[in-house]
Backbone:
């Protein structure tokens, strides 16, 4: 395997960058969508349940099946890949956004309104910052989840290390097949751990000591 890594380091660096880039972009899009939906529904038990149920249903669709549905509409490559990753990343972030916003002490928001803060200022200045540790925890879960799913997106000619794994599996029996597939798999695990560590660091830098998510 080390010989394969040494001989193909440029390709591995490129595929690793594309893999991380697709995951980060998908998590950011999913976070934006999830926070917006969470803000709209967290005060309504029925709305929260409906939004969470819809995101849960998406997560139960096998990745091959979802890509098969998206390919005729979006074609091959990045569009169906990122769309699928965003859909799969929604549930953990949405659920944690709703939980985080719902857990804000009403006395805190009442006090803010008492000093003249309007609804938008209470949301952006108090509720979302207090819910941030929970939102970040959801982002960490989603990141780990779609790191592996992206490998399957090679089926749709998506970017990343999945192409390396699929190519190796297709060439089983040749000298480089197993090292190629194993290298792709190990790199995905390593990159997932690195991204998680970076998100933990982000949490420590952006969250008061008493409310950091662990």
Residues:
């Amino acid at each position: 395997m080390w010989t394969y890594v040494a001989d193909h380091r440029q390709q591995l660096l490129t595929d690793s960058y594309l893999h991380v880039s697709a995951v980060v972009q998908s998590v950011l899009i999913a976070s934006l969508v999830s926070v917006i939906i969470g803000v709209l529904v967290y005060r309504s038990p029925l709305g929260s349940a409906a939004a969470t149920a819809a995101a849960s249903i998406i997560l139960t669709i096998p990745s091959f099946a979802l890509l098969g549905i998206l390919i005729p509409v979006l074609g091959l490559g990045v569009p169906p890949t990122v769309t699928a990753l965003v859909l799969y990343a929604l549930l953990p972030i949405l659920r944690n956004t709703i939980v985080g916003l719902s857990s804000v002490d009403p006395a805190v928001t009442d006090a803010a309104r008492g000093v003249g803060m309007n609804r938008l200022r209470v949301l952006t200045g108090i509720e979302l910052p207090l819910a941030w540790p929970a939102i970040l925890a959801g982002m960490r879960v989603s990141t780990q989840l779609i790191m592996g799913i992206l490998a399957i997106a090679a089926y749709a000619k998506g970017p990343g290390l999945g192409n390396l794994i699929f190519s190796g599996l297709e060439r089983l029996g040749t000298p480089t097949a197993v090292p190629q597939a194993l290298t792709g798999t190990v790199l995905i695990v390593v990159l997932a751990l690195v991204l998680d560590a970076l998100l933990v660091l982000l949490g420590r830098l952006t969250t008061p000591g008493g409310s950091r998510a662990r």
In short: Residues 119-152 form the longest helix (34 residues). Residues 210-214 have pLDDT under 50 and may be disordered.
